[in-house]
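Hi C.,

You asked whether I'd gotten around to modeling the 363-residue construct. I have! Everything is below, sequence then structure, no commentary in between.
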Amino acid sequence: MSQTERILVALSGGVDSAVAALLLKEAGHAVEAAYIKNWINEDEIIGDCPWEQDIVDARAVAAHLDIPFRVVNLMEDYRDRVVAYLLDGYQQGLTPNPDVMCNRDIKFGVFRQWARNHDFTAVATGHYAQRTTLPHGGYAMIEGADSNKDQTYFLALLSQAQLADAHFPIGHLEKSELRRLARNAGLPNATKKDSQGICFIGQVKMADFFREYVPDDPGPIIRATDETRLGQHRGLHFYTLGQRKGIGIPSNTDGEAYVVVGKRATDRALLVAFDGPSAPGLHTSECRVHGLRWNTPTPPISTCQLEGKVRYRDPRVPLTFTPDPLDPTAATVRFDTPQRGLAAGQILALYDGSRLLGGGIYL
């Protein structure tokens, strides 16, 4: 960011985006802020939905920094692009990731276009990620300096064009340093706790969300090794591959716990087995991914060695990536070591070392 830009910061009410705005202003940019109003159940709020307090906190930060502030209402876009995706995915037996789609379709999609329409040159967020300029043009995304806070996984489906319009001002900071900067600057939310909610429904448990929006669809709980019926579940959307808690069946007398190993659409059966290396379907060496998106100007076009994150908190693991010769948005992935609990619909983020290249969706 060597030249002065007019940048719109997505101010969430949290301390991360507040420090992002602070750093951009200190760097001399023309900074304005917007709170993205994305989800309110107007009939009945489920659980703890702190959007009202978040707007108050975001407005207070903007006032403290003396930057313009507005609320951008994207509720309809969220319902159409993210909520519908989430509900449809679970009803199909998939395990969707709304946070990844929120970033792709809303923050760096609809919100980015809103900013461009209002003459902003870029948008900025409080993600722990780093954007660098490549020697021959284009941009690269690098993991955040704080390995415990790195959020590049959630940005895996951004394109190069989206990355070109994005700034991540806090990506070079450790969380402790960010808190210190916030306190030193007197930011009103300097000690506010980090949010743990899903991006569009706040502090709402998924089970509560499902009870409100997805009708129960009971079926049998079946032991996969011998087809023994062990009980009945409320609906396959309440469970995901690799889940141990909340299945509703006890461990055996030896203390072995059951784990979800599959979902069978034909009879709506939830398949379980005793957790361990021999549990059928629990560990995956090879899988297909589709919907590939790349943020690198030069995506791989032949078989190569990469690394992948199979979940947000998991470390990168080595894999062999083989593009589909007939479909540029699909590939076969073979892991050097089997991975546990890879559920259809989840996101695989692809890396070359600390550099995020893109990602796809498990079939």
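If it helps when you're writing up: The domain at 6-126+169-207 is CATH 3.40.50.620 (Rossmann fold).

Thanks,
B.
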